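An instance follows:
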Amino acid sequence: MILLLSALLSGPAAAAPGWTQVLPLGVPQLAQGRPTPALVFGAPQALGAAASVWAITEMREASFAGEIDRELNLRLVSMGTVTFTAAFWFASVVESANHAEQAQAQAQAQAALAWQSSRVELTSSVSER
C-alpha cells in the first residue's frame, strides 16, 4: 500500500491529482512535495485516531462490565478525539487547497511574465529590422 501511494505521489507537485487533497494523515501535503506540513497535519490525525480507537475499545469494555459512569466518560473522550482528528483533517484539506491555488496563481503569473518578455523581445527584434 505504501509503495503504491509513493508511486502515485512521486511525480511533480503540479501533477498531484485533485483527489489527493481530501485524503487524511498529511497525504495532501506529501502529494505537493511538502513533508513538514504533512507531518504537522498527519501526526495529530494519527494520534487522534489512535486515541479514538482506545476510547472506543475501553468504552465497549466498560459497557460490558456494566460501568455506566465510566462508559459515559469514555463516550465524551471518544467524541473529543474524533472531533480533534476531524478538525486536523479539515485543516489539512483547506491548507492543501489554499497552497494549490497559490501555486497555480504563481505559475500563471510566471507564464504571463514570460509571455510578456517574449513579446517585448519579438517587438524589439522586428523594430530593429
Notes: The longest helix spans residues 68-128. Residues 88 and 125 are 55 Å apart (CA to CA). Residues 11-15 have pLDDT under 50 and may be disordered.
